[in-house]
From TrEMBL:
Amino acid composition bias (Polar residues), ranges on this chain: 1-10
Region entry Disordered, spans: 1-31
Compositionally biased region (Low complexity): 11-30
GO MF annotation, one: nucleic acid binding
Identification of the protein by name: Tc1-like transposase DDE domain-containing protein
Lineage: Eukaryota, Metazoa, Chordata, Craniata, Vertebrata
Pfam families, per the entry: DDE_3
Domain Tc1-like transposase DDE: 59-210
Length: 249
């Protein structure tokens, strides 16, 4: 199990956990899917329209995801008589802000790389530590001496100048990526698989949660990863058909 302690050296926004609200037609910056965002997604998809599965297999996809202790917890069913609804014995306390862990991972058509458990928010400096200690080993495991292209989203820690310099200094080719596009990243599907497996049995402590995440991640097969990478041409076509709006992926 790996844990990275982050340092507060810069500002960064939280990672995405899904596609988000319904798209808006306004071009205002406050809307998730502005006209500008849709146009960039559409342009990006059009540029990648003729990429083959073999080309997508050269991409090392990465992402962070948040896992909560209460994930999938719907609570116990309670049988009550009329008038017992507000009785203390029929009530159960809940946690407004459940404990959680942040996890970084990477995948390619060949399988998954090692997970990094992150303590705190992801900043530029800590992002570079993740690249050093987890992205490079992932690339070594999945590609060996072969060339690859690295993908990460446009989170501030990823797009920071110092992070860009680190990648350049290490000779890493980075895939240009459109904002607000979790539907284009197949690793999102792997996070969903892991989270579904955590529902039963449900972890009761953070250590149990981390162990369950690691076990579920380790059970992901290269065949599953290859199927997801093979879906990239369909994802691209879906974005083009949707004119840049979010897709079913």
């Amino acid at each position: 199990m790996f844990l990275l302690q982050t340092q507060s050296t810069a500002s960064a926004g939280p990672p995405r956990s899904g596609i988000g609200p319904s798209p808006q037609s306004s071009s205002g910056s406050g809307h998730l899917f502005s006209l500008c965002s849709r146009q960039k997604r559409l342009t990006w998809a059009t540029e990648k329209q003729h990429w083959t599965v073999a080309q997508w297999s050269k991409v090392l996809f990465s992402d962070e995801s948040k896992f909560c202790m209460s994930f999938g917890n719907q609570g116990a069913r309670v049988w009550r008589k009329t008038g017992e609804k507000e009785m203390p014995k029929c009530l159960k306390s809940s946690v407004k802000y459940p404990q959680s862990v942040m996890v970084w991972g990477a995948m390619s058509a060949a399988g998954v790389g090692p997970l990094c458990f992150i303590k705190g928010r992801v900043y530029a400096a800590s992002s570079q530590e993740i690249l050093e200690h987890f992205m490079l080993p992932s690339a070594e495991k999945l590609y060996g001496d072969e060339d690859f292209v690295f993908q990460h989203d446009l989170a501030p820690a990823h797009s920071a100048k110092t992070t860009g310099k680190w990648l350049t200094d290490h000779g890493i080719t980075v895939l240009n990526w459109p904002a607000n596009s979790p539907d284009l990243n197949p690793i999102e599907n792997l996070w969903d698989i892991v989270k579904r497996k955590l529902r039963d049995p449900r972890p009761n402590t953070l250590d149990e949660l981390k162990a369950a995440i690691e076990a579920s991640w380790a059970s992901i097969t290269p065949q599953q990863c290859h199927r997801l990478i093979a879906s990239m041409p369909r994802r691209i076509e879906a974005v083009i058909s949707a004119k840049g709006f979010p897709t079913k992926y």
